[in-house]
Amino acid sequence: MQYDRIDARILEIVQKNNRLTSETIGELAGLSATACQRRLKRLRCEGIIELDVSIVSPKAVGRPIQMLVLVTLERERSDIIDKFKKAIKSSVDVVNGFYVTGEADFVLYITARTMEDYEQFTRRFFYENADIKGFKTMVIMDRVKAGFAIPIDVPTED
Fold first, then answer.
1. Residue 126 and residue 136: Cα distance in Å, rounded?
2. Beta strand pairing status for 132-139 and 65-73?
3. Count of alpha carbons within 13 Å of 97, Cβ hemisphere only?
4. Residue 80 and residue 131: Cα distance in Å, rounded?
5. Which run of H or of E encompasses 16?
6. In a structure prediction context, what are the per-residue pLDDT tens digits for the chain, which is 158 residues long?
7. pTM of the prediction?
8. What is the CA radius of gyration of the chain?
């Protein structure tokens, strides 16, 4: 997966607003709309652009309780890790999940309607899973920044 200076500019633009037209992105990147569309298609096909998403306000859709949960597994075996990754991917309550190093094995970002709903989730998702040693919940007081923008390094010309 390689990209050039123009691709880097396109990536910067679409990370800020992926609803811009190809014409607008092209103008900002110094390309025609057709050339911009070709580059966007290639960036998506190569997996450099993974998804085009909208960031939704949890509060606006009735899920004002947000938590970060540190999960520790009973044992670190590949089958247990893979099984838990699959559970994370299939849960609608888990917005983001990360397999991490350090004291915890996973960090989850979870939203809920109420603390009672979160308690029910913990019973289903954590307590009924014998592979989980423990978990610690941190309730988010304020979402200071929301986004997925990655700093884009501009390749140097050889």
1. 11
2. antiparallel
3. 17
4. 7
5. helix 5-16
6. 789 999 999 999 999 999 999 999 999 999 999 999 999 999 999 999 999 988 899 999 999 999 999 999 998 899 999 999 999 999 999 999 999 999 999 999 999 999 999 999 999 999 999 999 999 999 999 999 988 899 999 887 65
7. 0.86
8. 20
